[in-house]
Amino acid sequence: MSSTSNYPGWEVVIGLEVHTQLKTNSKIFSGASTEFGSEPNTQACSVDLGLPGVLPVANLEAARMAVKFGLAIDAHINKTNVFARKNYFYPDLPKGYQISQMDLPIVGKGQLTINTDDGEKVIGVTRAHLEEDAGKSLHEDFQGMTGIDLNRAGTPLLEIVSEPDMRSAAEAVAYLRKLHSLVTYLEICDGNMQEGSFRCDANVSVRPVGQKELGTRTESKNINSFRFVERAIEYEIERQIDLIEDGGTVVQETRLYDPDKHETRSMRSKEEAHDYRYFPDPDLPPMILEQSFIDDVQQSLPELPEAKFSRFVTDYKLNEEDAVQLTSTRPIADYYEQVVDLTEADAKVSANWITGELFAALNNNDLEIQQSPVSTEQFATLLNRIADNTLSGKTAKQVFTALWNQEGQVDDIIDKKGLKQITDSGAIESIVDEVLTRCTEQVQQYKDGNEKVFGFLVGQVMQASKGKANPGQVNQLLKAKLNP
Amino acid sequence: MDKLHQKTLTELQSFLRDGECSARELAEHFLQRIDADDQLNAFITVDSQRTLEQAKQADIDLNKNSGSALTGIPLAHKDIFCTDGLLTTCGSKILNNFVSPYDATVVSRLNTAGMVTLGKTNMDEFAMGSSNETSYYGAVSNPWKIDAVPGGSSGGSAAAVAAGLAPAATGTDTGGSIRQPAAFCGITGVKPSYGRVSRYGMIAFASSLDQAGPMTRTAEDAALLLDVMCGFDEHDSTSLRQDPVNFSAQLDKPIEGVKIGLPKSFFSEGLDAEVGDVVDTAIKTLEKMGAIIVDIALPTSELAVPCYYVLAPAEASSNLSRFDGVRFGHRAQEYGDLDDMYQKTRSEGFGDEVKRRIMIGTYALSSGYYDAYYSKAQKLRRLISNDFDLAFKQCDVILGPTTPSVAFDKNAKTDDPVAMYLNDTYTIPANLAGLPAMSLPAGLSPQGMPIGLHIVAPYMEEGRMLNLAHQFQLNTDFHRAFPEAYV
User: How crowded is residue B367: how many other Cβ atoms within 10 Å of its Cβ?
Assistant: First the structure.
């Protein structure tokens, strides 16, 4: 049991709200660019600045992306959806309200299936709605003042709200990873958590096992990595259980996660909560989506992770574990399939090398596969050189390291390092003979029935050839000479 | 050639075309009149150099015969319209330093047509008021009686046109802000169907009700301006995709057989007898011209004022949140923390009426009150609209008085907001239903104050309404009356 065993007697209830930044070229209600990292306030036009008299115009591309997501999770699409104003004052919110969706969001009920230790589990998605992002307040660089950067103001967000269906931090992370994989597969979000393109708020409550009604929940904000989600939720679960076991009660409040201290702390209580005074935005008529538009989006859906997983298992004869890893993100799957296309090596061998050597190197250097210094072409060539016996498994690893360090192309590296495998049987035979002459003691032991010594002899031959002798041929020759 | 300021746009057009005067002479004439006047306070900003430069360009175009029908004709803009490089205050202290970096669509369309901007006219603060007394830049006087109000919120525009400080002006109408001041000042004012004219660059009061329109001497002039002002604007999602309009071409149809609906409720309690009499006479004139009078009912219109005073403040409370002292406009000199900055800035920057409406609107949208106020008012709005749909099955246009009384004296109603709000009782229903409506001069009261005749037409049927008004003006001289002091 994965879910409640960590906290005997308690059941944990978790729901997530995920803000995904949509990858549109321009903002959701203006023509300004959405590019990240520009000089402050250079990507904000009069509409983003909330100047007197300006009006919003909805970006249809954002709606297209939202529908794409909705169709991918089998959700109900609201063909009539309504933008509403969420009113509150903050300096980085130029209009004094955020345009969001309340009663009629673009995406209604849907679902996602995650893999847990207990097997598959369906997590309900309550809704997903379009809204505009706020700007950023910069507190550091200005003595006694706050700087406002409105470049981000008006960037389209899809807020995806889950049902309170998760029962452990691990499930929450599994759901979040699934969602992350899906939105990047759909190419509606770049998924960059550091830059804030994929942000998560966690609603957590606990209740004694068997209790029907839900416990009082808290909302933890500002969680921007998978690791932090797990830690923030676990911190919050323990805090709530400790509180109740000590005779206290959980207060409904918004809490802020501090990644340095790995704790959450109170931001504002329910009493201090804003009354956002939502009402339909009179500047934006209801958005009406034609069936033809939805059909068009349906047509444009890419192969989704589940389908790809099944295809990898069937077509490439991969085991499930490899298939899960190789379909975990779209760039990984694309990398793998490009390598398979380019190489003569077996698809399974390709999978082993990618999940083995490449993943290890990426992990050690904290890189995404898109940032890999080894191109799919070079990777394919490397695998070809194993297949055509130019390289042994061992020398291939040396070549991979050189490729990773960008020392050149596969064949140049082989030449330069003199790693070409010896397949000339005459040359191998003379090395074998030399070893047999030198190791008379071990030869005798073998002949006396100690077959383990055979491995030692192979090792001696390989060593004498500086690892370049074809191990298959070495085996064959040794066997022939020892068992005449 | 003298009395240029009493001419209609149509007359000025032919002067310019025939070379009887230049755009520069016209501009100078009106600038001099604006400068000479020290009673009305009709303008907040005048930049004569800029005006004369525009006139110079217009003359070049006129000489090359490359202009449009309106090239070289001066007009004034209500200070609610953003004008590139020119102070745009919306009648408020909170925008006392706001120089807009862009033109409202209405302004750019009229600029493109070659019109010459005389300046920015005074108005009730954020268009909230019916007397032009809420302006931070001082009250405006009525050219017919200096102690009286010109109406509001487009009071500066109405007074300027009535007194011949401008041959025409733009206005905006959320609950009657074009029509009521037009009636009080004896001019013609049109509020088009919601969505006809782009709201982009027009500082929002109540987004679902606001609509820009022309304020002129005649219906013919209004049609001329509307032909340029109307049109789809990609910057305004509520603007309608519409074919180019040509209302001017629809003015000459005879009105014989046109069915005029008279709602009983608009002629009963609350209507001053002197207004009722003049409107009755106007109706008789139309009847003589061949119109057919039918009685109609608009039962829910009685509830229009309370409905409006929930919805308009609700939208306003949100629309005015952007005036926070962070990016533009007034910011308090001294403040403690952020909340203090907001409070001081907005307390200092907004006047009483604006604060009152922000509070009403905030309350109406608050959780726990939303259903009782905002939702209920929205339902009522639909009922009011349905009433009009039914009425227009019986008649072509609806007629009545624009206001219950003639222009009242300054300070008469400033302490009684509800009495002030009731001024708009006849005009508000058209805003709630999104219908086109206009006011035109119907005559003078025994004391010599102008009285307005109000016409409401079905959605998108401005042409029908302007046609009736034009035919009325061909048969009457009320629109030619000019206040003594400004002749």
Answer: 11
